[in-house]
Every structure is written in structure tokens, then in C-alpha cells.
Write a structure and sequence with these properties.
globular; about 170 residues; single chain; two-stranded antiparallel ribbon; Arc Repressor Mutant, subunit A; mainly alpha
């Protein structure tokens, strides 16, 4: 798995489970920005993420129905000529195109990212509450808090805002 990939912030606004997000993020990390082709192998995904193959197939099916601005997160095409299923990430491909990754000429995309990073260092270097915790440790930490303490935290205060949203839903708090 790669250490760096470009993430689409619109995905954070979706109502998908943590496991679906984790799987989709894994597939985005395997995306080839030069050829604009994904590498989705559900057996390898299951192995790398430590979940069952059946669960990956269900996540794949569920993510095919989720759309962002008209583009599905995942699409599946049955290629009868080569006798295989071909997967694509249409939303991620459009996101990469929007920031300048146009296949083999990806230099513009990297230049745009560099310019963005130079533009507003305050927003990029935001200090989050519980910043050193991963999303699972954050879930445990927030779960141990009282309802009154949870109400003082906003999703923008956290690196993984969906964790707070899920806990608030579990407890039926606003």
C-alpha cells in the first residue's frame, strides 16, 4: 500500500460506513495517476484490510450505488471478450482530472498541489483535538466520554469527523 494518495474531500461528506470509507480509500491509494486506471482486486483488498472476501464484495456492490455530483464511486463492467470484471473509480478519476492529472502528463496536477499547499498554510496545518489518535482509537476515546462532553466537540475539531457523527447517532444525541 502506498504512503500517499490524493484524497477527495467530498467523500468525507457521504453517509458511508467506516469500513466502506476504509476500503474506498485503499482503492484510491492503489490508483495509478499516470494511466488513470485503478487496481481493484477484491481478494487482495480483503487480505490487506483483514476483512472477508464476501464483505469486500458487499462493499463493492454498495459503493456502486453511491454517487457524488453524478459520478459513482465505483463502477463495474463485465468484459465478456476477456472474460473478466473491470472496475473503475469514476468519481476519483473526475476529481484527479479537476486538479490537473490528465494521464501521462501529470506534472500539471503536481504543480497545482504544490501551489495549493503554499497558498494557505493555516488551513493545512490545522490543529485537531486528539490528533495523534487513529480513527479506531478516536472512536474508543469518544465512546468513553459523557454525553455532555461529546456535545462540546464539533466535527470540525476532529481529524476524522465521521467518528463523532457515528457515536452521536449510536447514542441518539442531536
Amino acid at each position: 500500500m502506498q504512503k500517499f494518495w490524493i484524497a477527495d474531500k467530498e467523500i468525507l461528506k457521504l453517509q458511508i460506513t467506516a469500513e466502506q470509507f476504509r476500503t474506498y480509500s485503499y482503492w484510491c491509494s492503489q490508483y495509478n495517476v499516470k494511466t488513470l486506471k485503478p487496481f481493484i482486486n477484491y481478494v487482495q483488498t480483503a487480505s490487506d484490510l483483514g476483512i472477508s472476501v464476501d464483505k469486500v464484495k458487499k462493499i463493492l456492490t454498495d459503493l456502486c450505488t453511491v454517487t457524488v455530483e453524478g459520478d459513482a464511486l465505483v463502477s463495474v463492467v463485465d468484459n465478456k471478450i476477456h472474460r473478466r470484471l473491470e472496475f473503475d473509480l469514476p468519481r476519483y478519476k473526475r476529481f484527479l482530472n479537476s486538479i490537473g492529472f490528465l494521464g501521462y502528463s501529470s506534472g500539471k496536477g503536481w504543480s497545482n498541489i504544490q501551489e495549493y499547499l503554499k497558498k494557505d498554510p493555516v488551513q493545512i496545518n490545522k490543529i485537531y483535538k486528539f490528533a495523534k489518535l487513529d480513527q479506531y482509537s478516536l472512536h474508543d476515546k469518544l465512546n468513553d466520554m459523557s454525553d455532555a462532553e461529546l456535545k462540546t466537540i464539533t466535527p470540525g475539531d476532529l481529524k476524522y469527523p465521521w467518528v463523532l457523527t457515528n457515536i452521536l447517532k449510536e447514542r441518539n444525541i442531536g
